[in-house]
TrEMBL record:
Transmembrane segments: 802-825
Family of the protein in this entry: Belongs to the Toll-like receptor family.
Protein name from the UniProt record: Protein toll
InterPro entries, A to Z: Cys-rich_flank_reg_C, Leu-rich_rpt, Leu-rich_rpt_typical-subtyp, LRR_5, LRR_dom_sf, LRRNT, TIR_dom, Toll_tir_struct_dom_sf
Gene Ontology biological-process annotations: signal transduction
SMART domains: LRR_TYP, LRRCT, LRRNT, TIR
Location of this chain's protein in the cell: Membrane
TIR domain: residues covered: 854-990
Membrane topology: Single-pass type I membrane protein
Main subcellular location: membrane
Superkingdom of the source species: Eukaryota
Gene Ontology molecular function terms on file: signaling receptor activity
Amino acid sequence: MGTTMKRHLSTTLWLAYVVSLALTATSALAQEFSCPKNCSCAREDRDEFEVTCPSDGERIALKLQPRSKAIFLCQVSTVSEDFTLLKDVSVDAGPAMEFRLCPLPDVAFTDLLRLRNAAKIQTFTYSSHRKFNETLERKLFKGLTGVTSLSLANNGLTTLPFDLLMDMPLLQQISFLNNMVQLPADFFQPALSLRTIELGKNELTVIPTDLFRNLKKLDLLNLWKNKLSNLSPEMFKDLTSLTSLDLRHNGLSSLPADIFKHLTSLKNLRLDGNDFQTLPADLFNSNKGLETVHLSDSRKPNFKLPSGFFANLPNLTTLDLNNAGLRDLPNDIFWGSNKITSISMRNNQLKEISNEVFQNATDLEKINLSFNHINSLQEYVFQQCKKLRTLDISHNKMTNLSRNALSGLDALEELHLENNLLSYIDKDTFSSNCKLKVLNMANNRLSFDYLIADSRPFFEDNSPLYKCAGLEKIDLSNNSISYIYNDWKNFFTNLSLINMSHNALESISFYSDAFSPHRDREIDVSHNKISVFDIDERSESWAIENAQLANSDKRQTWLLHGNPFSCNCSSYHFFRYLEKKLSPEVQRLVNIVPGNLACAGPDGWQSTPVTKVLSKAITCPLAPSVASICPRPCACNFRVADTALIIDCIGKNLTEAPAALPRSSTSNHTELYLTHNKLQALPDFTQPGYEMVSKLALGYNNITGMHNVTNLPKILQVIELHQNNLTVVEAETMEAFSNLTNLTSLTLHDNPWKCDCHLQPLISFVQVNFRKITNPDKMKCLNGQLLSALTVSGLCSQTSSVVWASLVVALLLGALVGASFAVYYKYTREIKAWLFAHNMCLWFVTEEELDKDKLYDAFVSYSHKDEDFILNELVPNLEGGPIPFKLCLHYRDWVAGEWIPNQITRSVEESRRTIVVLSPNFLESVWGRMEFRAAHCQALNEGRARVIVVLLGDIGLTEDLDPELRAYLNMNTYVKWGDPWFWKKLRYALPHPPKAMKSSIDLVNRSTRHTNGKSNDDKLELICEPNALPPVTTPPAEGNITDPLCIKNAFNGALSSPRKVIIPNHETNGTAAAVG
């Protein structure tokens, strides 16, 4: 117990000590940093601060890790005076100081802060992305005596002072990347410990010969992307330790043969991107230590390498000749350089490779000859390349691979032959020692059909790859392969991916085309010509057998999208697989990925995604013996899912059902589809074949009744009678439906059901078999009421109420009609007059009908002073003209001694028209005005035009006329004596038979179009001008007064004496009878 307590006490004391040290360190750190005035400070991490100045707007920031690094972050708007905001920051110097986007300060970099131990700074970086030109001075670097790495990249420097590095004696790395600097000859002399110099992207044209003098420790020199033209051996004479030299992209067109003679330690040389057309053959004689050479991207075409250029370089391992414009290779170019492991000659213009080029390249592991013009490989060209692992000859023009083209490549693991013109590969091209793991032969013309002609049966099922059992990935896409070869399925146990997309495969039989289940595999057969993927019962047996293996969890995935798939009988099991209805072993070992695979056929299925096709919808053609008796024009098929015979007669314009149906030994029931036809009755179920019908689809026809239902098929399960013309069903029909013990679905909606007592059997059936009725909520009566809401008792009571209501309505209508006839008989004339006046039922009421009892065609009202005009002109022309009219004249038709007002009234009422001869004499006649008012009163009562005004002479202005006469003349038309068309217009205004009226209208119309030789509007001639007025009439006689009020008004008006006015003679005259 005591030992345990001591151990706990010791542990507690140790933890307390650690915590105390941490708190002390944190306290010390906090004490050595204080936030300056006018700045904001934030602690980013336990030992990292960020200072932003000024606090109200960031112009300069400082990220500070005491004793580690200080990073100055500036803005584009930052100026050198902003550095003073940080002058009170006190901190111990760390190994790194960096300036980003900052201007040059006015004081030394070490004076920007209260910096302690500035000599500890080892790495100094200043990258402003500004243009300093010549402003960089030595005094800015005061105190940086411990710097070993100096980076002044991206500053726009042009000229540097010769003594810039005088205070940095320990400098080992320096970078002037991306400036435009020109260096003095002795610039690097204060820093003889330099190991790395970066002068890339400076547009240097001349380098002083002594610039690199005494730099015996220099290891790396980058002079890339300049414009050097004065390279000489003396420039590099002291660089005896240099291992890497970068001269790429300098526009060099040639090099002195001894340019590198002093660089005896050179290992890595970059000469790519220059303008060489050739180089000295002995360029590398002094550089036997060379390991990597880059000569790619020549900017001159037809670059030619001299004989033995890379020969006898015992340490050379990597050679980059990509895009060098090479047309050929000397046979001895690599001789003696036995350690080369990688040669890349991509994107040149090589047409062939001599079988001597690689004869000493025994250590080669990778060759890239892609994107050339090679049309064939010479036999044994790679015979000595025993260690070659990767060979890329893609994107060339090779048409075949001979038997020994790949001879010697026993270690080859990756071979790229894609994008050639290969159509033939010898069956023995690949040796028995084939170690290939990755093979890409995409985008060629391979089919391997020529193997079928081989006399040895072995090669009919195997491809030229049969010896490469270690293959893991094969790409054969975009070829013409039409067969999955046996060696691919059964020999390549390590195969994980084979891409056969865009080939000529037409079908897949999984039982024969399945790959061995040794590992997970992906088989891409997309975009072929596959119409069938057969995964039948034999496939299930295969899956059950292989599921028992130890590695039964391995799956093979088939990619099928982009094929012209047939959704027919052959693919039945494929759809069952998609529905997961095959055995669990198949579902576990096989992963079919349809992607966007859609049906290409048969008709009606095109473009349907296979994932939406149900296996139970797949049908197969019938045996010829059964298909031959399929009723025309119907189509007959066999449905595999439930062994059903499907007879499709949809939309065939049939008026009656087929007389007989075929039978098939492979089916146990029939489905008959007769929708969208013109049937009016049910089929005759006594005919052959109907006893096997389990589904009868009769929707969308014109069936009006359901008879002949006593012989319904006993196995009938589904009856569809929706969208027909059924109104009622008999009790025996419903009884027959009730006896169908297998019935599961009956559709009767969208029929015009007549909801009365006769519908009781249907209502009862629906209530009892409600669950068997499809869409019962759509079964409605003609009045829109739901059948499901009706009851048998309510249906009949509702019907009785409707009958009684109909009888009562009929009796009321009869009484109303009888009363109407009685009223009409008594008031026939008044009714007809009222109807005619209101333009109602004019086919029933005509003018001739209203005026048939009148004695005269017209009563002539005139002044006796105008009797000459009446007797000599008006009467002879109207009574003796082509259409004689019967006139009422007071001097011959009035009864002597009768009271004049009564005579006037009777004459007006017994005449169809009243002709008022309006003259100055008429205006002075009291009786004339009475006659006018009587005629006008009658016209108003009847709502018809009965007054004809004949204007005789000048009656003056209308303002002084009697108000009633003035209003009449302002609103109506008249006939003027003297008008050339006077008699035609007057006869037109008088009553006459219809034929005569038509000819008169035509005559008047013609006359109005030609009056005075002008084409005037006929209506303009009918308008009486507003200031004109007509005349007064005949003396009255005696008679009975039939309308005292009207006559009294007429008489009283006539007694008022008129004032004489003058009316001008107008050229436009009235033509027809005025409407009163």
